[in-house]
Amino acid sequence: MSGLKKLISFVSAAAITASMCVVSVSASEAYNPYNYDRWGDPIASQAGYAADEFIDGIQIGCGEFSEPEDLFISHDDLMYIVDKGNNRIVVTDLEFNLVDIMTEFNYNGEITTLKKPTGIFVDQYTGWIYIADNENERVIKCDKDGNVDMYFTRPETELYSDDVTYNPNKVVVDKSGNVYVVVKSVTKGAVMFDSNGNFLRFYGANRVEETAEVRANAFWNLISTEEQQLRSTKATPVGFTNFDIDDMGFIYTVTESTETTTDLVKKLNPRGDNILDSLGVDNSFQFGDISPTYYSIYAKNSSLNDIDIGPNGELNILDFEHGRIFQYDKECWLLFIMGGIGEQLGTFRSAVAIESYDNHLYVLDARKNGLTVFTRTVFGEIVTEAANLYNDGRYDESLEPWQNVLKYDGNYRRAYIGIGNALLNRFEYEEAMEYFEISISRSRYNKAFEGYRDEWLKANFTWLIVVIIVIIAVLIVFFHLKKKGKLKFLRKGGA
């Protein structure tokens, strides 16, 4: 074993011991932080975030919340909490000082109120507030004083079936003022309006998962008559549940269903194409909990019900089923897992919304009627720094932070890949191969091996040619002597 492998083994063994004693870093956590090792098995890890406090309506000064449903932090550092059961929007600053309570809205002199609101979005460019007023079957566009500019109501088009209800659940707006509305009963994607409230199209529909039944139906449709096809069961996709939009205009969606594995998380361009499909094969990511191999029939799949895009492009995804937060970097590599089901600080009973600001995460709980504040730990800061440098292509600068990550957690696979890529970028192929071997990153290992092979051939080209020439010369002499019969003579003489 080389010196590097011995060092890695030592660091890994020490970190495993430290990871099993995670109380040193996360003693106040009510859950056990974990990650996944190179084989996809869950393993103890250090906490990337720590739960700081729980805030409810009494502490804010607005009275108790009732089934709070959504959360949004605007670019002017205000927090908007959709208090569904109380039919209001509570506005605070980031220190949870009460700023406003929005209950009444003025539309051309007519006062209107909310009825079970479920979503909110604040346009950073115009300041307009968009509220998914669910049971009033509309999206309200208003200013901060509650003056309504317009309503986005049921689309008047034959594309929107008469038997499909229109109860807006979530809403986002792009730079052009186009409005996207998630309606639970719609499986064709988000309902898309222009800035004047005109229906444009359905946006970003999920695909139908290709199950054995779907393949069988497709085959029978090929050989069936038109009448038989009309009577056959049509496969429909599962509609996505929630979404967020980043500063570049890409819309990220999550699908809450536990019955499908297709399009659970998507990154959509303006045309509605999922560009996550174009990521490299080696980055075979999976969102939410990875199902255990040997007892998956007893495990519950993740149910992803909200997504937030952080300041560095990271994806913060909420798992309603397990009460967990999964944070991924902008390349969809898993960074941290936190939370769980419970009553203690840092766990949830019904996690419904997540938002981020700077190094904080805010999670809204509909049954605890409040929100939990998480703050990034020292370990989390080091991992975040390393991942950001790496994803920006600054591999050399990311080397030291990745090495520091291994001092905290020797099982952190992402660090081995980061170090390997930094060494690969320095043309230190042999050392890079060892890190890729440990992380079981086959394509990267092959790339490093190719570099090592080419480098070895260049370094040994001269004597390699000499050896080849000598071998050829020996063969020529051998065949020449054999032709002359000298080899037989030599064998007899030797005998």
Structure in words:
About 30% of the residues lie in helices and about 30% in strands. Residues about 1-25, about 210-220 and about 230-235 have low confidence and may be disordered. The relative contact order is 0.11. It is elongated, with a radius of gyration of 30 Å. Helix 7 packs antiparallel against helix 8, helix 8 (about 415-425) runs antiparallel to helix 9 and helix 9 runs antiparallel to helix 10. It has twelve helices and 27 strands. The chain has about 500 residues and is of the alpha+beta class. A four-stranded antiparallel β-sheet has the order 3-27-26-25. It has a four-stranded antiparallel β-sheet with strand order 4-5-6-7, with no helix packed on it. Strands 10-11-12-13 form a four-stranded antiparallel β-sheet, with no helix packed on it.
Adjacency order of strands in the biggest sheet = 3-27-26-25
Number of strands: 27
Whole-number radius of gyration?
Answer: 30 Å
The proportion of residues forming helix, as a percent range, comes to 25-40%
Q: What count of helical segments does DSSP give?
A: 12
The average pLDDT is 84
Amount of beta strand: 25-35%
* Distance between the first and last residues' Cα: 48 Å
Tell me about the largest β-sheet: 4 strands, antiparallel
Which blocks of ≥5 consecutive residues have pLDDT under 50? 1-27, 210-220, 228-233
